[in-house]
Amino acid sequence: MDIRHALRTRISTRVFLDKPVDEATVRAVLDDARWAPSGGNLQPWKVHVVTGAARQAVIDAVKAKMEADPFGDENDFPVYPEKLWEPYRSRRYQVGEQLYDILGISRDDKAGRFGQLLKNFDFFGAPVGLFFAIDPKMNPNQWAHLGMFIYAVALAAQAHGLATCMQEAWTRFTATIGKALDLPENEQVYCGMALGYADPDAPLNAMRTPRAELGEIATFRGF
Hints:
Helix content: 40-55%
Strand content: 5-15%
Shape: globular
Distance between the termini: 32 Å
Low-confidence stretches: none
Largest sheet: 4 strands, antiparallel
Number of domains: 1
CATH architecture: 3-Layer(aba) Sandwich
Mean pLDDT: 96
Order of helices and strands: HHEHHHEHEHEH
Number of helices: 8
Structural class: alpha+beta
Number of strands: 4
CATH superfamily: NADH Oxidase
Oligomer: single chain
């Protein structure tokens, strides 16, 4: 797959087919992604792949945690800054409204919106879930390198005919997931990823989010 095409066509898939992904394919995806760059070649990432009963065990653990503490957050930092400012606030608002408009869920339908949010914790129906972890002693530089690895996984998956959704929603339950996966103390779960085959007939998978024009994000000097 041409890298320019992959960059422009990768999306956050939120409706997956009930179709299994074999272990060999997942291994091939990760074998490609492990060539992602990292400062000092530390390769600070770990990835934990779940399917079948292992996938369900994590889902059940998180759902039990939500029932006991619906608004709890086990993470040391919020996914988004408090009182998000412009233009970031409008960008986040826009993508949310775009999603709910496609689903036909109105702004005052809090139950409908919450129900869609909960689908995160079923990997949107994807048969495979990935959890990305890092040693919490690492500094922000290594967290950035973890992000490069995560994106490499998403692009490699696309090259293998698979779809993904990178899911920071799981970040709230980093300790619960770590316990369910029996992770050591030097592995902190950062986020999850849904992996599977996209449902081509789902209207939500036709959603495309806008991007800022180049002039808004880049400056050029000395040319």
